[in-house]
Amino acid sequence: MTGETAPRYLPAGEAALVVEFGERIDEVINDRVLALDQAVAAAQLGGVVETVPTYRSLMIHFDPRRTSTSALIEAVRALNPASAPRKPPLHRVIPVCYDPPFAEDLGEAASILGLTQQNIVALHSGALYRVYMYGFAPGFTFLGGLPDALAIPRRATPRPPVPPGSLLIAGGQALIASISMPTGWYQIGRTPARVFDQSREPMVLADIGDTISFERIDAADFAELSAEAPNGVGR
Amino acid sequence: MAWLRILSAGPGATIQDAGRTGYLRYGVTSAGPMDWAAFQTVARALGNSSRAAAIELSVGGFSLCAEEGALVVAFAGGGFDWRRDGRPLPPAGRLTLRPGEVLSARAGRGGAWTYIGVAGGVDTPIEMGSRSTHVRSGIGGLDGRMLRAGDILPVGPGATAGFATDAEIDAPWLGGGRDPIRVVLGPQDDYFTSAALAGFFDADFTLTQAADRMAYRFEGAAIAHARGHDIVSDGVALGAIQIAGDQAPLVLMADRQPTGGYPKLGHVILADIGRLAQMRPGEVCRFRRASLDEARAALREMDQAIATTTARLRPLRREMTSAWLLANNLIDGVVK
Fold this sequence. Notes:
The complex is a heterodimer. By secondary structure, chain A is an alpha+beta fold. Helix content of chain A is 23%, strand content 28%. Chain A contains five helices and 13 strands. Chain B folds into two domains: 3-174 and 310-327, no CATH class; 181-290, Cyclophilin-like (Cyclophilin, Beta Barrel). Chain B contains five helices and 23 strands. In chain B, the strands form four sheets. In chain B, strands 21-14-15-18-17-20-13-22 form an eight-stranded mixed β-sheet. Chain B has a seven-stranded antiparallel β-sheet with strand order 2-3-10-5-8-12-23.
């Protein structure tokens, strides 16, 4: 572990502990989060209820009737996450339609970025993404790996709701939305895949730490793939 | 087997159990009761498991009845106006509801959330390990939605021996109280100026209309950031006090998202989260800094108090009058 800074242990009330490895979106930091997440799960620490890996920290929710912040910090310090066998990341290919009416903001994004719509599609569908975390809503996927050329500022005011399965970009980040909602991001495509499905293992498109790429499909493929999904494209 | 029928339901009535665990990492909200202490008091009074599901109500009004047999029910939380067939009941109690009798609740002198449980628990389907409703994502409860008139709630098997006497629950731990709401600092208290932190603990805060199961927004002193108001998203726990660009405290409640991207100054301690939840818009509170040890001691004290529930049941007077209710100094939900 030489060269790595020690994590910060920060209380989040008396029933949660944040183990923070950095303040940036960074693959190395996220790897350390995931390694600790696996080490905590493997150690079956008493009183731990569940863990939430994020970009740069692990939140450990615990039962304060069974353990304490200080006891948990001590137990976590004693773990050696580097020695835990890391689950090999899987790669998943997600179909995305970048054609109208599935790419509502593509034209707008193109004029702001000074690119053609074709450029944006080529860049977005040509990149390799990493799933950093989930949050906001069931299956709402936060990705890293968006090409710098697609770094577009967030909108000053939110746009009307995007449908579930929308591919969103803004602030140098990429998302897959799992629910319909107004957003300050730009909707440049949509996947017919069911983004969150309780009856599937995993319920989400990919585990945290897995990689994703997007395969371009046309509107006819979209309709066909949507029809194959028994419950449509997620709620 | 007997069941409960909802006769009327204002907005905000949902099925809740102790909350959904294990899926936060996939973006699934935990939900669960807004006032866990009131919820657990009801479970205790009924001899139910601490994970049994009950009905959470807000100030919109609600009524139900038992069908195909009598059911033992209990209610507690906030200063709600409970009635059986129109006759006043105390703000917390346990009674046998016979077919044809109507139990109703409406907003009383204070409080924002109240609970009604049934011996054996509400037996709606378990979804992702829990019966808790999260309306925003349509998960749990009855079809992931709020309850409405005509809904029928199945009841699980429960022991009701010894529950023959209708009883009032004397639960002083559910009283409003005007002591400051206690707060443990972190994880991002270093994102605020020391003057802002001092101001947070030295000002009156008024709950705004923006108060729901997801979050309570307060206004009072402006809490200035020292290092900007955007952070790279991290986890969010119950009671987190998030300060966004508007510099106003937003306390994240039962339906909070599992992660968030604003600095969190501190967390309301678990023993005080129900008291905060019971505030109504326009009511005023103060916050006081507490240590983790103090938070743990307060939680232990609250747990011990709730454990005395069955010892604090008193036979219910058959006829209760408004004068009796006033004389008994009903819970006042105002927190100062």
